[in-house]
């Protein structure tokens, strides 16, 4: 158990510094380029752990499994993480970190409608508290950055949808979180690479520039990476995306999914503090109120998860071997 909490501590540290690290090199990389590089590196770091989890399971890679990972990779890396990456360009790292952590709140109604999971009173309360916290942070009466806020929320919503896809894959194929993430990151990176290469075609590049989307034309793959940016790229790819998820899944093995999810309950409070000291991003009263509400909502959801786990353990029903528990 002690080892599990050490894993949680490292995972929390890496995930809480993700937006800050991206912000530090936001001007040195094209957003999609950085997205591609860090998830490709992360998938390679996760690969040995994923292979260990698959050993002896009789896993076979067929067309259905490939289609599934292409879908999950596209929803995570190409869609959700692109919104997330762009959000950091337009908004404060602390704002993105807090709002993106609310993907867990969006997961609640999605799980009810798409997976037919029971919507408990505690889950509804958690959702309401988290949404009120988001409103406090967004501050509609004085909204100065609608683009950054909108991209952050879109990233959170689409990451919650990725979580639903992951849960369906877990139920259907028996994948655990590390296998799900490793393969999804890898195939999502390849899909993003294809899109990046398409932007290098002169006709496509010209059209993107003509419609005011020049940032997405002729996207570099490995070009333009400076020596000064390599340490941050290493940190994002290996430490955050690779080891961050590895420690998270190892924490699940040592403790439980609910206990390991503490990582994403601590992040909304911890990330703004780090952003304050590293980037000098002030924590305003409305943001502080929003942080407290989101953390409170997360605690309520943790309580709901704990109750559901106890109820399920008492029920004489055979459960699937692994279920993906994703929170951004």
From TrEMBL:
Residues 3-138, 148-300 form the EamA domain. Its main location: membrane. Pfam families: EamA. The keyword Iron does not apply. The chain crosses the membrane at residues 5-24, 36-54, 66-90, 96-115, 122-141, 147-165, 185-208, 228-250, 262-280, 286-304. It is a multi-pass membrane protein. Keywords: Cell membrane, Membrane, Transmembrane, Transmembrane helix. It is found in: Cell membrane. Belongs to the EamA transporter family. This is Drug/metabolite transporter (DMT)-like permease. It comes from Sporolactobacillus spathodeae. The lineage of its organism: Bacteria, Bacillati, Bacillota, Bacilli, Bacillales.
